[in-house]
Design brief:
The protein has helices at residues 2-18, 36-42, 45-77, 83-91, 98-108, 115-122, 133-161, 165-173, 178-189, 191-207, 210-216, 228-238, 242-265; strands spanning 21-23, 30-32. It is mainly α. A hairpin with a 6-residue loop joins strand 1 and strand 2. The longest helix has 33 residues, at 45-77. The radius of gyration is 22 Å and the shape is globular. One of its GO terms (cellular component) is plasma membrane. This is sn-glycerol-3-phosphate transport system permease protein UgpA. Residues 51-263 form the ABC transmembrane type-1 domain. Keywords: Cell inner membrane, Cell membrane, Membrane, Transmembrane, Transmembrane helix, Transport.
């Protein structure tokens, strides 16, 4: 409780209070402006664009990381002797810091030095995430998803191992093909794990991907990857617009809380425990 009060409740309350203020760069002059910071944000085209970018980025990161992790978990779960070895290798990327993950994929996709742009160029496709916003978005989605695949993989593998094999064997005896067995038996029994990971991945994409964005694209080109959490940093620490930055952080927190409530209230009803 003490840790929660110090590191969450107190900073959140300070952000909420500061979002109602207009301050100069050094904090010598403060003016109470009520909700002017919020009204200015929703009238700002750049902020609305950041909302759209965040939605695209969060959706892409969540779907990619969860789908690839589920595929790896299914493949590893079929192994008997080398299961622990593959599990160890697949878990290692989770220990990599977000900034390091971003730099790693920045080198891989570098238009001058990267191996993937070189391979794409041989196929007649020009890759340049510095000038093409779609390329930049794809880069940050891949980098952020790669960082989260290990976490999702562990939970999916644990969920698969908890499913009774007798159910799958009975379906196989009845003539159900592997895909039908997975879709009608395995996946519904994984719904609690899937629901939990859905909530975690949405929060991760909203909050914990600042390092990936900062190390790869810095929100560019032309604000194509300027997600909300990175815009809070740019406006607050670079633009020194503290009131607007605080208002953006409050809105971001409210969006995440709203999405979590919607997931628990509506999506959880389809979860089979």
């Amino acid at each position: 409780m003490v840790v929660t009060l110090i590191f969450f409740v107190w900073p959140a309350s300070q952000a909420l209070y500061q979002s109602l203020l207009r301050q100069d760069v050094f904090g010598f002059k403060t003016e109470f402006v009520w909700f002017d910071n919020f009204t200015r944000l929703f009238a700002d085209d750049q902020y609305l664009q950041a909302l759209k970018v965040t939605l695209t980025f969060s959706l892409g990161t969540t779907l990619l990381s969860m789908s690839v992790a589920l595929l790896f978990a299914v493949l590893v779960n079929r192994l008997i002797r080398s299961r622990d070895v593959y599990t160890t290798f697949l878990v290692w990327p989770y220990a990599v810091a977000p900034a390091i993950a971003g730099i790693l994929w920045w080198f891989i996709f570098n238009p001058t030095l990267g191996i993937l742009p070189y391979a794409l160029d041989m196929l007649g496709y020009q890759w340049n995430h510095r000038a093409n916003g779609n390329h930049a978005m794809l880069l940050v989605i891949i980098a952020a998803a790669w960082k989260q695949i290990s976490y999702n993989f562990l939970f999916f593998l644990a969920g698969l191992q908890s499913i009774p094999q007798s159910l799958i064997e009975a379906a196989a005896i009845d003539g159900a093909k592997p895909f039908k067995r997975f879709w009608t038996i395995v996946f519904p029994l994984l719904s609690p794990v899937t629901f939990f990971l859905l909530v975690v991945n949405v929060v991760y994409a909203m909050f914990d991907t600042f390092g990936v964005i900062h190390a790869t694209t810095e929100g560019g080109p032309a604000q194509a990857t300027n997600i909300l959490v990175y815009k809070v940093f740019r406006d607050g620490f670079i633009g020194m617009n503290l009131g607007s930055s605080a208002a953006q952080s409050v809105i971001l927190m409210a969006i995440v809380v709203l999405l979590t409530v919607i997931q628990f209230r509506y999506i959880e009803r389809k979860v089979n425990y």
